[in-house]
Amino acid sequence: AAASTSSSRAPPSAATMAPADALARDVGRLTVEAPAAPRSSAPAAAGAPALRPPAQPAAAGGSQPESQAPAPAPPAAAPVSSKSVAPPGRPGFGTAGRKMIVRANHFLVGFADKDICHYDVAITPEPKTRRINRVLMTELTSKHRASSLGGLLVAYDGSKSLYTAGELPFQVMDFSIKLGKPPRETEYKVTIHFAARANLYHLQRFLSGKQRDSPQDTIQALDVVLRESPSLNYVTVSRSFYSTIFGQRDIGDGLECWRGYYQSLRPTQMGLSLNIDISSTPFYKPISVMQFAQECLNLRNADPNRPLSDRDRLKLKKALRGIRVETTHQEGKRSAYKITGITSVPLIQLNFPLDDGNQMTVVQYFWGRYKYRLRFTSWPCLQSGNDSRPIYLPMEVCTIIEGQRFTRKLNEKQVTGILRATCERPRDREKSILKMVEHNNYSADKLAQEFGIDVTDKMVNVQARVLPPPMLKYHESGKDKACAPSVGQWNMIGKKMINGGNVQRWTCLNFSRLHIDGVKRFCGDLVKMCNAIGMVFNPMPVVEILSASANNIEGALKHAHQSAHNLQLLIVILPDVTGHYGKVKKVCETDLGIVSQCLKPDKVERANKQYFENVALKVNVKVGGRNTALQQALTRQIPLVTDLPTIFFGADVTHPAAGDDSSPSIAAVVASMDWPEITKYKAVVSAQLPRQEIIQDLYCTGTDPEKGTPVHSGMMRELLVSFFQKTKHKPSRIIFYRDGVSEGQFAQVLMYEMDAIRKACASLQEDYQPPVTFVVVQKRHHTRLFPEVHGKETDKSGNILPGTVVDTNICHPT
Fold it and tell me: What Cα–Cα distance (Å) separates residue 196 from each residue in 137, 161, 218?
């Protein structure tokens, strides 16, 4: 990473962090055992702490060693490390656990030895959307298939690649295609140029495990063939297809949830398989703009004579911007427009200049030109085009065009609606997937037949293993000193925290409408629960529990911080209206350095014993305690973890929302700070360029402006030093979990981030290169596992049992 990379890392906090869910889902693992990098001739920079074994305790009666970091190493230049890192082959298959059979939503794909040719496609002028690309290619093939294309069917990816089962009768050819009607007719030049042949021999070798390199171009060609038909018939969103024929459901405020399916061709140990899963996404309802406005603004009946408030107008402007509409006031003719905004003045006041220099209102124009009397003249008008040449469209003559996906953030009502629309029991989801495959009838598709592709209609059976749950250790003073989870669940009945935290200085701020007496009773009951299950919690708040206005959250938090010096914990009851959690956390955790526990007022009002226990468990971890530990960790019986000092990392990059090109991406890295328990974590964050997936601040170098000496820094280095300071061990093994990386980014992330890890280690001690296991965690895959027999070997919901592992059949060939 460049030394100039800007970073805004959060200050170290005493708060600990549980291992994120992202680190627990070990699907799609990519493991790299990094060989030691070449020895660097450059030791660490002056003033930088090095990792050394801790000093041995002094003999009896002698002086005790100081509990601080070891002496710094001599000055050094930036370390050098090799970037020759490649994903390793599979070392073997797991054997632990009870074997069972599950079904996976993978459908085996057969392919014949066809001459598959790849052609590059160039379109001039370049169309604005893939939809226009497909319209052009459809027009081209319908006109020229029998002649210039030699009667061959083509598979087109909607962009720059076209595939045929056999050679076209040319190496390169230009086609002229016209779209639209005069005077808006546009002529495009489409150039098709031979690029390469797909190598099915290498694909066969790869699928049988005889070669390591994936022939991605060949897999891509077959994938495009299977996607051609749905791409022409359904709305395409990335790798998913949606249509109203699969069903839709209203989710509120002008939106509906469309049902569809995800499809991807995957290389597996069984051969090629087509991964099919049910998918849903929100779309704008194809309704009149007036009806959309009423739903969006929660108006029962729109009053033609009542103007919109500025607040409602701005809300509607934001909701409508970018939507395509068509006009309905001309019988037999519909024109399409893209909304760029809405006017700040009502329709009745809106006028425009005529060619003779006079002015005419939009209301007059519609009556004079179309004999259409506009009713909602007090409402604003839709605007299309640009500010210099605006096109005014009255809302009442516009309808939203069907098939437009909603890409913004859903509100709480819509999230609830889409969850209700998509939630299915495993048995029902399996049936839905099978119905989708039956409906698509891949093997009957003419294009698939021409390319020699055949898709089975049955899910594959897969060998799985159910791992035994780990034994959890609790405090010896409790009734239950250890616990074995049952179907992934356990509780605190008869148990005490293995290491209870100590809270002496705390208080509570109430931003809700709950009465202060009820809040005080709640806090008292929470303190009792904390003490009952193992914490040491002062029953008296350091300052009085107070209520504060939700309009002055930041001021109230700062006042509480100033009033209670050295505050260990601030309990915050959030306002009744949602949306304030982020602000509270931002002020507490980053501005003031306060550990906070936020609570929803409705939960506080209905709090029961289980709720108090759950909150107490959260609080204990935040103030430095441990709730439980793995018994095998304490007895040093976890292979490759407890035999040698091992540090676990977790890393992810959060990107700004779609359409936001100014906000930075935020890289976050957590690392375990204890061993062998591995229950406490420290987090560091860093801002970087928008949509940059590579973590820039993992390791950085620079120059001290005063001394002119090299300076080493970065998140990896900081966390390694913290681990050493906490445990007095330098990690002998690094296990690095990386979330949010697509398959196309594997090589890039592995190259740069593995290099940063090596350099961070070498900057601390020149010969320090511990082995690294780099695990890419993929949560958003679409593989779904179902029990072989529904109702057996499942949890209460019908899902497969927690701890089920699949590492054969549907996994990567190598």
Answer: 20, 11, 10
Q: Is 110 helix (H, G, I), strand (E, B) or coil?
A: strand
Does residue 391 belong to any structural domain of this protein? yes
Helix (H, G, I), strand (E, B) or coil at 662: coil
- For residue 806, being part of any structural domain is answered with no
Are residues 113 and 91 part of one domain? no
Residue 199 domain boundaries = 108-284+416-458
At position 487, the amino acid (one-letter code) is V
Question: What is the domain count for the chain?
Answer: 4
| Residue located via tokens 């395509």 | 324
Q: Where are the beta strands (DSSP E) in 253-335?
A: 255-268, 271-284, 324-327
Banded pLDDT at 317 (limits 50, 70, 90): very high
646-684 core/surface letters (b: 16 or more CB in 10 A; e: else): bbbbbbbbeeeeeeeeeebbebbbbbbbbbbbbbbbbbb
- The CA distance from 205 to 762, in Å, is 39
Instruction: Render 406-464 in DSSP notation, one character per residue.
Output: P-S---HHHHHHHHHHH---HHHHHHHHHHHHHHH-GGG-HHHHHTTEEE-SSPEEEEE
DSSP state string for 72-86: PPPP-----------
Q: Position of tokens 């459908």? A: 107
Are residues 618 and 687 part of one domain?
no
Instruction: Identify residue 504 by its one-letter amino acid code.
Output: Q
Contact 705, 3 (CB under 8 A): no
Is 611 a domain residue?
yes
- Angle made by CA atoms 77, 78, 81, in degrees to the nearest 5: 130
Same domain, 763 and 680: yes
**At which of 401, 424, 439 does a domain end?**
401
Terminal-to-terminal C-alpha distance of the chain: 31
pLDDT in tens, 123-168: 999 998 999 999 999 999 999 999 999 999 999 999 999 999 999 9
4 pLDDT band (50/70/90 cuts)? very low
Average pLDDT over residues 642-670: 92
| pLDDT tens for each residue of 324-355 | 999 999 888 889 999 999 999 999 999 888 77
Whether residue 678 sits in one domain with residue 585: no
Structure tokens at 439: 């409906």
271 contact partners, CB below 8 Å, separation of at least 6: 108, 109, 110, 207
Q: Are residues 156 and 206 in the same domain?
A: yes
- Burial group, residue 387, by CB count within 10 angstroms (0-12, 13-18, 19+): exposed
Q: 377: which DSSP letter?
A: T
The torsion angles phi and psi of 584, rounded to 5 degrees, stand at -60, -45
Query: Pick from 625, 650, 684: which residue ends a domain?
Result: 625
CATH, residue 395: 2.170.260.10
Task: For residue 717, tell me if it sits in a domain.
Answer: yes
The answer on 261 and 115 residing in a single domain is yes
Residue matched to tokens 């980014």? 745
Cβ-based neighbours of 810, under 8 Å, separated by 6 or more = 104, 106, 266, 268, 269, 270, 273, 460, 462, 783
Cα separation, 334 vs 325, whole angstroms? 10
Residues 691, 615, single domain; the answer is no
